[in-house]
Design brief:
Blueprint: H1 16-29, H2 34-37, H3 43-58, H4 65-78, H5 82-92, H6 99-107, H7 115-129, H8 136-140
Length: 141
């Protein structure tokens, strides 16, 4: 795994507001992920990150939890973030037991998915890679 280019503070070096936000994050998640440590120089940004994360993945939505993790896999893959792709695939695997579906999502092989899942993944991939090319018909799909 690649290491960040900026300084990050491990939990054992955290003090003040950073220690508080690390403690809250560990308390709510059970652990502190590498992606959380990147916020160590700006603890308020970790709080904001966690609010957004919890809202998108756990808040009220017509999308099932599995679909939300599938979207996270597709977006992470589109962004070329191996760390996030792996993290969200592992989370998706809690809701999706078919490894062929998990492999297709991780590999960007949308045509191997159900019609609904293919449409969702193709949409978020296009939105991630070329948002200015989005059209009304993309939303309808």
């Amino acid at each position: 795994m690649k290491r960040p280019w900026i300084e990050v503070l491990e939990p054992d070096r955290a003090q003040g507001p950073l220690k508080d936000v690390y403690t809250r994050t560990i308390g709510s998640r059970g652990a502190l992920a590498e992606v959380h440590k990147i916020h160590s120089l700006n603890p308020e940004s970790l709080d904001a990150h966690m609010i957004l994360y919890k809202t998108l993945l756990y808040g009220r939505s017509p999308l099932h939890r599995r679909e939300r993790e599938m979207i996270a896999v597709a977006v992470s893959r589109s962004n070329g973030c191996e760390y996030c792709t792996t993290h969200h695939r592992e989370a998706m695997a809690r809701y999706e037991k078919d490894t062929a579906v998990l492999d297709a999502c991780e590999g960007g092989e949308w045509s191997k998915l159900s019609e609904r899942d293919e449409a969702i993944c193709a949409y978020v991939e296009k939105l991630t890679l070329s948002p200015s090319s989005m059209r009304e018909e993309d939303v309808a799909a």
